[in-house]
């Protein structure tokens, strides 16, 4: 009998490209630092805690953020220079262009939370663009938890400022017909509940998708170098150019997503502050 033919699926699985993509996806998974998947423990306990690749770089980003502002604050000069100038420009941008512009003068009161949100997301995003680092914001666990924090903070502010009952009543705009009020109230409640998901998924998707694209072109470059052919002579330089362009674009996305996440946080807080005016 003739030997069975190799299926297309089997050939694809054995191809260098398939192996490269599989390795890329493995490296982008949430894994322990040793790179191997840990067995799921039966119950949670401190002994079962595992430091993952993403949580490690998240901690690195937090340390970098603290060091950056500690060093910048210690160099007090009449005219800031160097790192102090960068820190002051960032602080003024968040205070004036986000807090005050969105929430008015009252927004300065919430500057510490808004600034922490902005710089936490920004430094995690930027750090993820430095190989072999991974962005702490590259997992939905981190971004969703931060979205929940925003949800709790802005609702807490709204309840404290307006009172619980008036704040809940504000979900239905004044002048809404009685027969329509239950539907509007339900839609508003669902909208608020979805905010942590939309905040988290938007940030995660942008960070993760960017690294997938960078990884794919890195795989193309590696395969072109390992199996050099006439086609590789074209693929290699094009992949390198795409790597450079995507790196620049990812830096832009890192800053943009930090701004979007923070500006939406400020908008939610502003809406909670003025809920009684709706």
Helix content: over 70%
Q: Which parts are unreliable, with pLDDT below 50 for 5 consecutive residues or more? A: 1-12
Globally, the shape reads globular
The radius of gyration computed from the alpha-carbon positions, rounded to a whole number of angstroms, is 24 Å
Q: What sequence of helices (H) and strands (E) makes up the elements?
A: HHHHHHHHH
Number of strands: 0
Summarize the main sheet: none
| Mean pLDDT score | 84
How widely separated are the two ends? 80 Å
Number of domains: 1
Output the number of helix runs: 9
Strand composition percent: under 5%
Strand-pairing-aware structural class: mainly alpha
Key traits:
disordered N terminus; 278 residues; 0% strand; mainly alpha
What does this 3D model show about the protein?
The protein contains 9 helices and no strands. With 278 residues, the chain is mainly alpha-helical. The chain has one domain. Helix 2 crosses helix 8 and helix 4 packs across helix 5 (111-127). It is globular. The chain starts with 7 loop residues before the first helix and ends in a 5-residue tail after the last helix. Residues 1-12 have low confidence and may be disordered.
């Amino acid at each position: 009998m003739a030997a069975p033919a190799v299926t297309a699926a089997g050939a694809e699985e054995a191809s260098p490209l398939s192996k490269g993509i599989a390795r890329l996806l493995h490296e982008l998974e949430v894994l322990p630092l040793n790179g191997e998947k840990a067995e799921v423990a039966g119950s949670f306990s401190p002994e079962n805690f595992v430091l993952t690749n993403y949580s490690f770089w998240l901690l690195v980003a937090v340390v970098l953020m603290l060091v950056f502002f500690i060093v910048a604050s210690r160099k007090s000069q009449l005219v800031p220079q160097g790192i102090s100038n960068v820190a002051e420009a960032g602080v003024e941008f968040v205070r004036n262009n986000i807090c005050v512009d969105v929430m008015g003068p009252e927004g300065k009161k919430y500057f510490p939370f808004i600034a922490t949100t902005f710089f936490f997301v920004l430094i995690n995003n930027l750090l993820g663009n430095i190989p072999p680092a991974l962005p702490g914001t590259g997992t939905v666990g981190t971004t969703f938890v931060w979205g929940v924090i925003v949800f709790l903070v802005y609702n807490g502010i709204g309840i404290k400022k307006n009172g619980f009952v008036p704040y809940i009543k504000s979900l239905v705009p004044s002048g809404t017909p009685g027969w329509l009020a239950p539907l509007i109230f339900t839609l508003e409640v669902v909208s608020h509940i979805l905010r942590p998901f939309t905040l988290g998924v938007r940030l995660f998707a942008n960070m993760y998708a960017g690294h997938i694209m960078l990884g794919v072109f890195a795989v193309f470059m590696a395969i072109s170098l390992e199996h050099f052919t006439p086609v590789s002579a074209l693929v290699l330089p094009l992949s390198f150019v795409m790597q450079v362009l995507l790196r620049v674009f990812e830096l832009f996305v890192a800053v943009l997503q930090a701004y979007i996440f923070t500006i939406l946080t400020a908008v939610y807080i502003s809406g909670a502050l003025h809920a009684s005016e709706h």
